[in-house]
## 1
Amino acid sequence: MRVKKQQSFPFLRVAVVVFLGLSILLLVLFAVQLGKVKNLADKIANFEKHQAALELEISAVTGVQRTMNVNLYYYNELLDRLMNGEIACDIEAVIPVERTIPVSQSPINDVVRLLIRGELTKAERDLGFKTEFPGRELQFLGAKLENGVLYLRFSDPSGFTSGGSCRVSLLKAQIEKTALQFDTVKSVVLEPENIFQP
């Protein structure tokens, strides 16, 4: 006579089903929270834009100009020599000088325009800061920010932004570092793509 094997409760199957169910639930909750974070980031950016517009209106009504401190990044030859024992065109020697500018709705445009004017003070030059800006006929046409990528468009009919790799890498680093000081900028693309090429 055969003894019928008693079936046990399928604990393993239940555990797997519960685990899969919880995993799916957690994925759905994560997706919902991710959507909320993106929505919040959009709201913050929109708020900052409206705040800047309101500040401009207030300054127009009150006659008081609001200002902000920004950094312009320029090459420091003395620092390059200290770090490398000679001039090595080290982009780590591209460091900030501070400027105060009026608050505006387009601070990135304002800062890039100010940078390429190349206006260093005598004291800054005495400290080793140098730049080849302003370039003959180099024009900054504007900026567009999309998903953290800042597109900076230039016009350079005279070829100021081309030349040796040492010079071009320093010019490019000055622009990129200046733009990257803004929290919303994660990377910089210079346009057209043949600009700032050795």
## 2
Amino acid sequence: MYELSHSLRKNKNELLWLACVALTDQFVHERLTDERYQAGVMELEQHINSSGNLDAVTSVTLKDGTKVTVPDSSRISYEDEPRLMLLQEWNLFDSMLCSSYIATKLKTWSDNGLKKMQLLLARMGFAREECKQKFQYMSVEIKHRMKDMFEQYLPEFGLTDFYYRGFLLLHGYSSKISAADVVYGVTALLESSVESDGSSGSKQFGIAYDALSLNKLDKLETGMRQAIKVQRAVLRQGSTAITKKGSIRSGSKFRWVKLEDSADTKLLCHPQALTKFGYFLMDALREKGARMKPLICVCYTQEQKKVLIVGICGKPRLGAVQGNAFGIAFRSAAEETGAEYFHELFESSWIVLETVAVNSFMIRLTEKLL
């Protein structure tokens, strides 16, 4: 879409920023390969450079007479970002504890994993009390040293691809927003207080759309706080599923897990939230050396007589030529069972089904994959 506006010479910073958010959404939700993401990043970086974003500064004088350079309008930048979810809105300790990348590699839900994370922070010279402060109130010195310390010590803990190229929207020195944080916040708003069958979605869409504007930062912050709640629920339920024997059942063609009714069900009974939970489990199982298979996640909806079922094939691979046989079988079994099949992606699909029909769906899916 941005390429079209660029060719028509109607390209504006607002559209360029939305293009950055859109690409980041694909990356964050694991809908494209790392190679394709990097190609997209390079293309957008060229547009950012050519649009003059990096040079859009002017000089202003403060009350004490000091002259400083401040951007006179919103500008887009890019830099290496850590795989830490919502760090600007959270604190370093909890962001490391709950972010899927570090949590699945260090197993932060276990005592041993938590000790490893605390040891990492100690090796970097970051006091625990400092790391538990909201990030914006942390010591400036620690923030400046953070990247160098991470790059020095993370490889010792098997964390070798911690940074990725990300995008930032800046306005003066009062506002700095990561495209990834926008994705997390807007996604949480889209699914907040929405039934898993999509009802009330139009209202939430309007709120989420408003959150994309810098003039409605309060709405985006609301979404970010909701996203943090969802991620905590992912960690709690994910650690339970991994450590509790028999929680994850494995067949010859796929695994499946059912979330028991709990306080977290309300947070995870939405398609994207349950998909995020599924990817968390797949990453954790991969770190344990388990063979990769598609995963079925089952969760009660807010209507107790129905369940939301999400089928996840895994992150796309560069050069993959085999079709999505699991996705085709998933849809066919859903149709035969009479499920409400209301969304389909290349890597995941989801349906709403009567609770009593779950076993029938599983049997049909198994038969179609034989």
## 3
Amino acid sequence: MSSLDDTGLTKASVAHRWLVAFAVVGLIVCVAALFGILTRPVGFLAAFWPANAVLLGLMVRKPEFATPAGWIGGFCGYMAADLVTGGEIFITFWLTAANLTGAITGVLLFRVMEEDDRQLRRPQAVLFMFAICVIAAAASALVGGGAARVLFDRDFFTGLEFWFTTELVNSLLILPPILAFPDLGGPTPRRSFLKLVRRANFWTVGPLAAVVASALGEMAVGGPGAIGFALPALLWCALTYSVFATAVISLLFCSALLMGVSAGLVVVPMAGDLLSSMSSFRLGVAIISLGPLTVASVDAARNELVTKLSHLVNHDVLTGVMSRGAFLARGNQLVAQCRASGRPVCALMMDIDHFKSVNDRFGHSTGDRVIAHFASTVSEQLGEGALLGRLGGEEFSALLPDATIAEAVAIAERARKAVAAAFQSDGLGVLPDISASFGVSDGGGQADLAHMLAAADNSLYVAKSDGRNRVVAGTANATLPAPKRRRHRT
């Protein structure tokens, strides 16, 4: 294929990506804007306008859409939604410019944040998001606030206040679920929900039920304090559910509360100017949602740290397999489970032949790479459900649940051949032929893990004594004499 053909394909690919960005962004913005227009009170700007927050979240989570084509698509989406509902071309252009100003400002500010902060994975990310929402709302309000004079004969500062408050409230409620939406590579919200349903109990369902009960209490009691009735329940949600789930629950609850007040279902006294009082109330509701979101982020960061520390404690740093202590603890549990259910279980002991000579001739750095490569190769051959641990140096052990002695020997033989083949084309440099010896032991009826490992270790010693690079099987009930261990069994 010529370079001209390659250039043509590249241009076609770029054009296709831009067309997709234009169509997707334009359609999403148009639908969100039409929804906002439906909530527009007679004689004033829309009270609920999700389009700007949706556009901002989309551009942050999908940077490939933040192209000139994507922004043009957003512009067309705003214009189309307003024009088909009877808007005037000049006013529509003005309002669209204000909407895009806020979204572009937010995207530029989010770009200076790290990826974990953009997806609300760290506690300070909520504070950063709040600051960006304030700045973006202010930028949008400065451009669009003057439209209140033309449209509704209200002064600039009234339009500025309403635009800023509405923009900030919408961003604080709508943006967090978009930013915290799980990556496609991880568990989907549907899978997480189904997993939660299967594990349903008081502690998993209780927080959500408490939010519903709090909402009913707000309707029944009303008054200025009703705005805070659900805060303890939302904090409970933050300690129980993920950041994304907490953000969705906060969005649904706060939206329901705002609509309840507008519909008169929740009675909250308003003092002075009704418009200013409603703006203050709506802003207070949105800011309250930041509390549970912050708690959820802190809890998620703590859980991630505990998971990392647990992995470091329970896994060997060099090879990634289980550490000696973790292997023995998990192994005892596995053997006990197999014994209780009458299932077979076998143990393997293995180490690398002549490993000391590898260290002596090529250095410990190469030796470490050999050990890591060996562990990776063996792990691939053991199958699902097996445990593999590094007991020390070049010595490893494995447990094979639901495997008979014959099946365990076959698995060990397959691993032995895989090790020999792996080091012939491993890219580690000039090395002698690397091989491994394996000792196999079955459960021997009722033998515990210690006896199984001792029997497998005896079989490994026999394999070493018989010439290495082989598999020898024994049983935990066999009365093999204890071998006289050499200082370096290589």
